[in-house]
Write a structure and sequence with these properties.
Elements: E1 6-11, H1 16-26, E2 31-37, H2 40-50, E3 53-56, H3 62-68, E4 74-77, H4 88-95, E5 99-102, H5 107-114, H6 117-123, E6 126-129, H7 133-146, E7 151-161, H8 169-178, E8 182-187, E9 190-195, E10 201-204, E11 211-217, H9 222-229, E12 233-240, H10 243-257, H11 263-277, E13 285-295, E14 298-308, H12 315-331, E15 337-340, H13 347-356, E16 359-363
Parallel strand pairs: 1-2, 1-4, 2-3, 4-5, 5-6, 6-15, 7-12
Antiparallel strand pairs: 7-13, 8-9, 10-11, 11-12, 13-14, 14-16
Helix pairs in contact: 1-12, 4-6, 8-11, 10-11, 12-13
């Protein structure tokens, strides 16, 4: 008797990130990959390339969600920007024993997902939020060094993406919505208010990424990350290889804080400008984690990094989701409930997918 195929729906499956996740899922045995989104024409285009199933679905339409997601085994949600989203899809999954993983980059959205824990436990769905670079992949790197310390004092995470790394309108919209907004950061044991895309730092990533400037950002499930590691200072910084683009975003954020920009219109202009300013830049991307803590009685700092020479595959962004889907498909999903991606996987689990995407590990 042939094994029943598991239906895995990827919302935003024709976006820059979604396409790559769909391509990986479509190669799994006994799986039906569904490329879903509001634009059926785009879904069909991607589905034809990877022998998947197209599906027109508006993630904000409760009736459509209830009708179209019946029979799904996993829903992978990459349909940003999450700042503009309601948790409609995750709520349906939690109630109906459908497993759910998202690429949320918004703290408020992920907080709403985590509140579904009791509902997911009753309904039977495993719900995971924030399974992208931040905070999911960052936590994998922190965990790989954690045993070296008897006590953690500071965790500093920096990401930088090449100017020519492919990104979609959703990713750009999320960034532009966030720049200049107030965020909460834990510094020296206390929470304080800062602003998104401020406090620039010059960080040296392993080659070929090199020296890049990064800026303070907020991340989904930041509170879960802080509780999990209990360091006195935890900060996340991000940036692009295009220096001019970094400065444009800084100016954009400054103007927004002064209330002199209408975000919707200026956001579209900034998106087009960002693509223009990326011309001539590289595709190399990286994430580096610096941990300061107590080791054998001394206060020391260690670092670990992942670098992607040609970031076209977006392995640094997609590796955690791809690994989770593979593991669940082969061995069964996690226990029901809603959790963040912090601490879910270890580095050894991710290595096969990282190698597949030519992502290198560098320790210092």
């Amino acid at each position: 008797m042939p094994q029943e195929r598991k239906r895995i729906v990827v919302l935003g499956g024709y976006g820059a990130v979604g396409q790559r996740i769909c391509a990986a899922i479509s190669r799994l045995p006994y799986v039906e990959c569904v490329v879903a989104g509001r634009n059926l024409r785009s879904a069909r285009r991607v589905a034809r390339q990877i022998l998947a199933t197209p599906l027109q679905l508006d993630a904000e339409d409760e009736q459509a969600v209830a009708k179209q997601l019946v029979g799904a085994w996993i829903v992978v949600d990459t349909a940003g920007s999450f700042q503009q989203r309601s948790p409609t899809v995750a709520q349906f999954c939690a109630r109906n024993a459908i497993h759910y993983i998202d690429l949320s980059d918004d703290r408020s959205y992920s907080s709403q997902i985590l509140k579904l824990d009791s509902q997911a436990k009753r309904g039977g769905g495993a719900i995971v939020t924030g399974a992208g670079t931040l905070p999911g992949l960052a936590s994998v790197l922190v965990d790989s060094l954690r045993s070296q310390f008897s006590k953690l004092e500071e965790i500093h995470v920096h990401t930088s993406f090449g100017g020519r790394v492919p990104y979609g309108a959703g990713s750009a919209g999320s960034l532009l919505t966030s720049v200049g907004t107030p965020i909460r950061v834990k510094v020296r044991g206390r929470w304080r208010q800062e602003y998104y895309w401020t406090r620039p730092q010059r960080i040296v990533f392993p080659a070929p990424v090199g020296s890049r400037r990064t800026y303070l950002v907020d991340v989904p499930a930041a509170d879960s990350f802080v509780q999990h590691y209990d360091a006195q200072t935890i900060e996340f910084h991000s940036g692009t290889q295009a220096g001019i683009l970094n400065l444009v975003l800084s100016l954009y954020g400054w103007l927004r804080r002064r209330g002199t920009l209408a975000s919707a219109r200026s956001g579209r202009v900034a998106h087009r400008l960002a693509r223009a300013l990326a011309i001539g830049t590289s595709r190399s991307s990286g994430i580096v984690v610096f941990i300061k803590g107590v080791e054998q009685g001394d206060l020391v700092t260690h670092s670990i990094a992942l670098v992607e020479d040609a970031g076209d595959e977006l392995g640094i962004v997609t590796s955690l989701i791809q690994t989770l889907v593979q593991r669940w498909t082969e061995s069964g999903a996690a226990e029901p409930g809603a959790v963040s991606a912090v601490g879910l996987l270890d580095l050894d689990s991710l290595k096969p997918v990282l190698i597949e995407h030519h992502v290198r590990l560098v320790r210092a």
